Amino acid sequence: MLRFALLGSGNVRISVGVIAALATYFGERPLDLRFWDGDVERADLFDRFARLCFTVARSAHELSTVATPEEALEECGRVLIAVDENCASRYFKGRPEAREPDRVERAIECFLLQVPEGTPILDLTGAVSPLRRGVRRSAPWPEQEDERELTARPHQVLRWIHGEEYVNDLLAQHEHTPLKAWLDELEQAETR
């Protein structure tokens, strides 16, 4: 299995698309996914949602939602950055950095200091310095949504979890994504 860290797993703008793409990703090896977010409630919500999606897609990936970014990054072979304002604020809780305007960038830099050189990183936030080696910025994906849709997103996720709506259409919409293309590209490079 390939260990994969998702930092910012509770990001309401990004995580639904990321989870749907991961659930329908069937590479050469299953993934050992380590989810982390500074917001424990959101981390739990998206953990439950991911488990539902993996079950529906019959994915062999393993999932652990961990308490610290250090746990998520331990021995990881890939890193996905989805850290948002909420996650960064909670990570820095009680420290002056929690109120800084660049808290997302600062939190991500703290995390990336723990990532071994050469580990592939995909940045979905646009907050990672483009000069940092090993980092690829994703094309704008998932698509931008308005604030009203983002506010309603956790409620939609709960409807999927409770079986009030099915995730099949969502999974089908994420068959071809920049995340899956990145994973396929890395897998092909490893087999050469």
Describe the structure.
The chain is an alpha/beta fold and 192 residues long. It contains eight helices and six strands, in the order E-H-E-H-E-H-E-H-H-E-E-H-H-H. It has a single domain, classed as 3-Layer(aba) Sandwich (Rossmann fold), CATH 3.40.50. Helices cover 44% and strands 14% of the residues. A six-stranded parallel beta sheet has the order 3-2-1-4-5-6. The model has no long low-confidence stretch (mean pLDDT 91).
Q: What's the CATH class, please?
A: Alpha Beta
Count of the separate structural domains: 1
The percent of residues in helical segments reads 40-55%
Poorly predicted parts: none
CATH architecture: 3-Layer(aba) Sandwich
Give the termini separation. Answer: 19 Å
Strand order of the largest sheet: 3-2-1-4-5-6
Number of strands: 6
Would you give the CATH topology?
Answer: Rossmann fold
What's the overall geometry?
Answer: globular
Beta-strand content: 5-15%
Provide a count of the helices: 8
- Rounded mean pLDDT is 91
The ordered string of helix (H) and strand (E) elements is EHEHEHEHHEEHHH
Structural class: alpha/beta
Largest pleated sheet = 6 strands, parallel
Describe this protein with a few key phrases.
192 residues; alpha/beta; Rossmann fold; 44% helix
Structure, briefly:
This protein is of the alpha/beta class and 192 residues long.
Chain-wise SSE layout:
Elements lengths: L1 E6 L7 H9 L7 E6 L3 H18 L4 E4 L3 H5 L4 E4 L3 H7 L11 H10 L8 E3 L11 E3 L9 H15 L6 H6 L4 H14 L1
Parallel strand pairs: 1-2, 1-4, 2-3, 4-5, 5-6
